[in-house]
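Extended Data, panel c. Modelled sequence:
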Amino acid sequence: MKKKKIDAMDDAIYQRYCCTNYKIKDPPRGEPLPSFIRIGGFDISFKHFSNGLKKRAHVNNEVMSLYIESFNIEHMYSSSKPRKFALSPHVASKLCVDPSSFNTNSCTKDLKRACEKNDIAKADQLFFTIVKQDHWAVVVLNLIHKQFNVFDSNIRDSDYVSFLEKPCSNLIENFKTLVRGRNPWKHNLDMFERFSPSGYPQQSTTFDCGLFAILYMENLTARGLKPFNTDTTSLLNFRKYIAAKLFKHPQNTLSSEEELEKLLKKS
């Protein structure tokens, strides 16, 4: 895998927005945190941005949601990129419930929006990021190989059963139920097998699972998962890469530096 290039500007962005301790007051109770970055239909506050990407931090829902939005923009509208699409963690959480209590109406609008706005019928792979107790896993609807795959960076051997196994299985069954009424791929997902890959990169820390979830999405190809670097320096550089990518994103409609200055003045 080509290493992510981190230049001096990227490092400066990371140091300023993820490593500096600012004394910023939270808004009055009941008021939302001001937006710091806005890409597409997703916002993130400075607090969540910093807390989700600083050293040794767990990637939070807000960072993952914003990254997925940028991921979708990059992969669905580029002729040189594989056709990939990722549902938001919020949608995945609705699909993780026990099948006996799953209501298709809770996700119908999300599926319709993805079909109409993002044309997911052209996707080769569909990703779902699941989080529980700060641990992330990825479920993949692999339309190329007609499989459902699960990547969990905490699995050590074939005998280990992750506490995310049940939510992942629920999501697969519930998504099959959801698309029976609207299936953009014209595949019978009930015929897709559940295949658990083995030998893929695993985390050696207790806090890098969110980074691994993103790396699985980025590096999964029709031929399998491309290898990627998992040493401490590479993973820290990947945090810097994510922070700089979101901050500098061409579709970020906010002046993030100005938004931080407003927060500092209020405090």
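The mean pLDDT is 93. This feature is highlighted in the accompanying rendering.
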